[in-house]
Design goal:
With 230 residues, this protein is α/β, with parallel strands linked by helices. The chain has a single domain, classed as Metallo-beta-lactamase, Chain A (4-Layer Sandwich). Strand 14, helix 6 and strand 15 form a beta-alpha-beta unit. The protein is globular. 47% of the residues are buried. The protein binds zinc ion (ZN). Zinc ion binds next to loops.
Length: 230
């Protein structure tokens, strides 16, 4: 497939919009997100991807899916819980190493070292998501600690772009995320899941310095609301 530009927009926390031949929104936590500028009403998406059940990741997924008549792709047990809430929606349930292909967007679930609950219920395993579109590959790690199988994720899917949490407390901090970059070998790493709430205050420049002194990957520290053509 011909390689095209991907536009990556960060809405703060773990919420990214990825636009190429399709528009994807990942972990659409907008309402109640203290740093997000985008309103859930303004989101235009063809596919909604949710990594796990925590409120700061599911966010406005149901609202956006309904408004855009767009499918949600997420981990199996969370998919069931979301379906209970909104039976009319198209919700794709995938599990580790499993994929769905929706109009040219391939989404594959990979492990994340974290937990998952939704609406007070256990929501199965959390995931990271590999997203392939227009011949490009991006890895959204979800919320995760660092783990050795990130090396396999790097070798298997060869993501060019890795979106990695660095906030600490619930996920990797800059030190662990820099180690993750060494294992994943992306061309570009973008930090996320920091400076949204007091427990996850971090300086992303620490991550940038650690990565760029130790590997060939380039770190783009994005501003909330910023668009990047990659
Ligand atoms: Zn979480």
């Amino acid at each position: 497939m011909e390689e095209k530009k991907l536009n990556v927009k960060w809405n703060g926390h773990a919420c990214f919009e990825i636009s190429g031949s399709r528009r994807i929104i990942i972990d659409p936590f907008l309402e109640g997100n203290p740093v997000a500028q985008k309103k859930k009403e303004d989101v235009q998406a063809d596919v909604i991807v949710v990594t796990h059940g925590h409120g700061d990741h599911v966010g406005d997924a149901l609202f956006i899916a309904k408004k855009n008549k767009a499918p949600i792709v997420t981990m199996v047990e969370l998919a069931w819980l979301l379906k209970e809430k909104e039976e009319s929606l198209e919700i794709h349930d995938i599990n580790f190493s499993g994929s769905v292909n929706i109009n040219g967007v391939k989404i594959t679930a990979v492990p994340a070292l974290h937990s998952s609950s939704y609406d007070g219920k256990y929501a199965g395993n959390p995931g990271g998501m590999i997203i392939e579109m227009d011949g490009r590959t991006l890895y959204h790690a979800g919320d995760t600690g660092v783990f050795m199988d990130m090396e396999l994720i790097g070798k298997m899917y060869k993501p060019e772009i890795a979106l990695l949490p660095i906030g600490g407390h619930y996920t990797m901090s800059p030190a662990e995320a820099a180690r993750a970059v060494e294992m994943i070998h992306p061309k570009v790493a973008i930090p996320m899941h920091y400076n949204t709430f007091p427990p996850i205050q971090q300086n992303p420049e620490v991550f940038k310095t650690l990565v760029e002194s130790g590997s060939k990957a380039k770190v783009h520290v994005m501003k909330v609301g910023q668009n990047l053509d990659l």
